[in-house]
Amino acid sequence: MELVKWNPMKDMFSLRNRINAMFDDFFYPTTRSEGDWGLSSWEPRVDIYDDKDNIVIKAEMPGVDKKDIKVDVKDRVLTLSGERSADKEVKEDSYYRRERTFGRFERSFTLPGEIDPEKIAAEYKDGVLKIVVPKPEEQKPKQIAIH
């Protein structure tokens, strides 16, 4: 996934894709049973923004233990992976409704320019993972003095 500036018009195309997927699911159902729908995979939602010196990635991961999260960087690609485990305390037949998703996840983001992986910092607090990626020197805006 390439890092690009947020464009609200892009969300309209995303909505179109979701509606198309809904019709595809209706007319061409998958082999999953209704009870398994959405429980086998999920992706944490992320915000990616630019501050003066860094690219910041914030990922929502409620219910994920810090030890189950892995962040890797290789060849300009930052990969966020891990697993959210299902509740084992409740028997399957005791549920009236089950909407929360569980399982393994993996998200990858292509970073601009050559970054130094040693300078990347990550912090996990209250179910939100914050990854701070310092911009490469050539990416930082340069102030030019006018004489």
Give the topology:
Blueprint: H1 8-27, E1 46-50, E2 54-60, E3 69-74, E4 77-84, E5 103-110, E6 121-125, E7 128-134
Descriptors:
147 residues; alpha+beta; Immunoglobulin-like; 4-stranded antiparallel sheet; 1 helix
Task: Write a brief caption for the model.
By secondary structure, the chain is an alpha+beta fold.
Please count the beta strands (DSSP E, at least 2 residues each): 7
Strand % is: 25-35%
Question: How large is the count of helical segments?
Answer: 1
Q: Report helical residue fraction.
A: 10-25%
Q: What is the CATH topology?
A: Immunoglobulin-like
Pairing-aware structural class of the strands and helices? alpha+beta
Q: Biggest sheet: strands, sense, closure?
A: 4 strands, antiparallel
Can you tell me the number of structural domains?
1
Q: Specify the CATH class.
A: Mainly Beta
Show unreliable segments.
30-40
Radius of gyration: 20 Å
